[in-house]
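Input chain follows. Return structure tokens only.
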Amino acid sequence: MSYKKKLSFGLAVELTVLEGEYEGHYRSRIEEVGERLLSVGVPFENGELVPVREGTKVKITFYDETAVYSFEGKIMQRIAIPLPILVLVLPDSVEKVQRRDFVRVPASFPVTFRMVTKEGLSDLYKAIMLDLSGGGMRFSTPVKVENKSLLYAQLSLPYGEIQTPVRVCRVFNIEDTKLYSVSVQFHEISERERDKIIRCVFDIQRAMRKKGLV
């Protein structure tokens, strides 16, 4: 089970309930990884624990920098004390899908950035996020930036502020406006910071599914 080294305490995962009255997608995280067993937190919905029953078929999805991993299984045990967790059997292998990028969702969180130049950092500029993924984002700004240039960006997300270098990979003028659309990839971002972003993406995806948008 070579994929196990990618699993660690606190890693954000998507828990998909595949059957029953609580069928749907939920955000969770890993609580413990054993030799054959995996424990994940019981998900919350509207501030309440989702009462997923033992024996329910579920799917676990998680990410790293290059791929999306998933596997299906059944809830072996539901434990309430000291922490509400669900216990599953780890499979011998998982489904792995190579991705150039992560799932991208529309988002409109505030962004500020500085250009990285030979002289140092530029003045601070404001931007509005247009979409977000675990691998990068797109934002609009009246400031023209150079393709392939390096920026130092700050994202204001529900799970906290994130500061990270980003590499510009595409820039174009938005038609009939004085704004530019700037696509960037996160550059040397920590896994802790990427986890915050992925959790945010999960939340947006779940809200979109509820509205029938995906």
